[in-house]
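In the current project phase, we have settled on a layout for protein records. A sample record is reproduced below.
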Amino acid sequence: MARPDPAAARPREADAAETLAARTEAWFAARDWTAFAFQREVWSAMAAGENGLLHATTGSGKTLAVWLGALLRAEGLKPSGAHAPPLSVLWLTPMRALAADTGRALAEPLQGLGLPWTVGVRTGDTAGGERARQDRRLPSVLVTTPESLTLLLTRADARERLAAVCAVVVDEWHELLGNKRGVQVQLALARLRRWNPSLVTWGLSATLGNLDEALAVLVGPDGRGRRVEGRIDKRLAVDTLIPATIERFPWAGHLGVRLIEAVIAEIDSAATTLLFTNTRSQAELWYQALLEARPDWAGLMALHHGSLDREIRDWVELGLKNGTLKACVCTSSLDLGVDFLPVERVLQLGSPKGVARLLQRAGRSGHAPGRLSRATCVPTHALELVDAAAARRAAAAGRIESRRPPRKPLDVLTQHLVSVALGGGFRADDLLAEVRSTHAYRDLGEDEWRWALDFVMHGGESLGAYPEYRRVVVDEAGLHQVPDGRIARRHRMSVGTIVADTAMEVRWMSGGRIGTVEESFIAWLKPGDCFLFGGRVLELVKVHVMVAYVRKAKPGKGVVPRWGGGKMPLSNELCEAIVELVDLARRGEYPEPETAALAPLFHIQRRWSRIPGSQELLMEQVDTREGHHLFCFPFAGRHVHTGLANLCALRMGRAQPATFSISVNDYGFELLVPERLDWNRALREGLFSAANLEEDALASLNAGMLARGRFREIARVAGLVFQGFPGESRSRRQLQASSELFYDVFEKYDPRNLLLQQSRREVLDNELELHRLRQVLERIATRSIVLTRPPHPTPFAFPLMIERIREKLSTEKVGDRVARMLADLEKWAG
């Protein structure tokens, strides 16, 4: 029997794509829709085998653009007469919460298009029965996360199961681009491209500044791609809830809940409202306050954040979809992609902290082409009015934050080596070429590669005596594989780069799971203490085997859980927009209603000191009963100010030894000393010089402790520290002790260990934001430094004083102390 001629099959494949294109047009027409030009551009590009990045506003039809393009690509390649294809499209989502919603969205057009495709979802939440069905036969399109895709790659039959994949879509690419999960995606894509060189890859993003770089990272240094801008008329309104009266001396946190009546009125004016906070603790506080003010909203208002149990979050998301909820207080857990059509309003509680974040959240309302997306900022202190106005101006000017992709994280690479060794094995030279085809490892050195190989094969220079760290062996044919089933199970349990404080389960004494909270928080509590969680006041009864058992407590003031990331800095783009508004205020110009409302505050600032111009750095020296204060206002964000404050303390201490108390916020920093120092002399001698920055920055902070903290995360990703099999989770203290033991061993016996070097580099890049710190110092060098001597703490300085005081005193004592200070300041201000 003669073989069919491949050339003869091509017209039939082209006919299949053309037929689908015609059905697509008919499907749109049946819904009275008209395809946007950018959607047609994506369809034709994907059908032709091009890679790309689609950048379009939230709710503009990005999903349909890329999904129908993927179908056109797959149908064009499908053999004639084939029915439901094998796994052909992978759809990667950064959040498990998005997966089910995305799966439904992808399934919707299939019947109307007459396609026998099947849609499946595979994440950490997928039930065992569904996983078993997928193990027997994968669906035509699989919606999954980077972690679950990597787990598929660890299967011995991974190549056979994934070789037919012709298109990969990475949803919300901006959320992955700037972290190690994005590197994990790059490595997985390189593996898939090796098996199918004609693989088409597309990313989706709504809010991103460095689009060309994002595309280059997605397709790799050897790839090419098309950038498509989805420009449609999407109306956006951003305004601010301006208090009727504004204190002239602001302090963080005091204003927010005082606006609760105005917030309730905003909620009442819309069918459904999302209230976004920046932290889970803030979400708990607002939910409780709203429920106390409007008990009739019980059952109509919900709370949503990542520590709540999956069943609770599913119930909330369903209520938002169906329009049965009036309001939901939430965190970034609802920032992305989930389509809630009934949502009419978004309230941002507190500073948006970034332009992209505000746009992303605003897009949760009016989530459809042509509908108005509206966000209202609710300040928690007066200066956040400037943040809101600056974010709106920056958004209108298109000044969106960039995401910097990580470069050569070796913990991710060592994890990947073990994953590939499990997934059928590898030959060193072949895998090196594959790894170098990614943007992250494009300049990976031969020495670094050899070190990573040696690390997974022998444990490096110091762990060779321990069999569990000989995770990969090579046979006589040069094939590297995992030799032991227990090592394989441990690795699969540890796949991924998401590292957080060890989670402790929260359960009722009577049975039933509420969610999880960080172990480090529970460690501060004793039985009988109360805390807010899941919108309830809970009393801790006991802790047993990583479970906190609770019962319902009487309503009252509880201790609020403090999750990591609570002190998020302002972005660089937002800082620049704030500086512009402050400069306008210096000239007496208030172009925004928010800055006009702050005119009395600016008036006192100008009278007692100065409002800095855009080409000035303001420093204030103030003497109080506490000592001698230096306040400095670079307006560069909390992280940079932490580095600057410690840098100044180090350099000043070298010339004039002193004990410094430090306070920072997003607008500036404070140095408090018991004796007077000569700051003019320090400025002349290079207080803000960028010379020796890295050395001084590390010396100014407890760099060793910071590096140890980073190494704990790196050790988990690299597979050195195992969190335990199900039912045997290890505590945070056990994990910390294990990672610190490795750190000490490497430092003593393997000082050239590249994971140690990585931990130090990550401290500089992530903890200190060294690149931004250097930029700020270089900018200061071109500015005029204005040193004033106000008679009293100014409106700019007062929040920094309170930031320092509240670290030492209870909430009640802070309130009393602030009231006395405010009374004095208001009396002096007149």
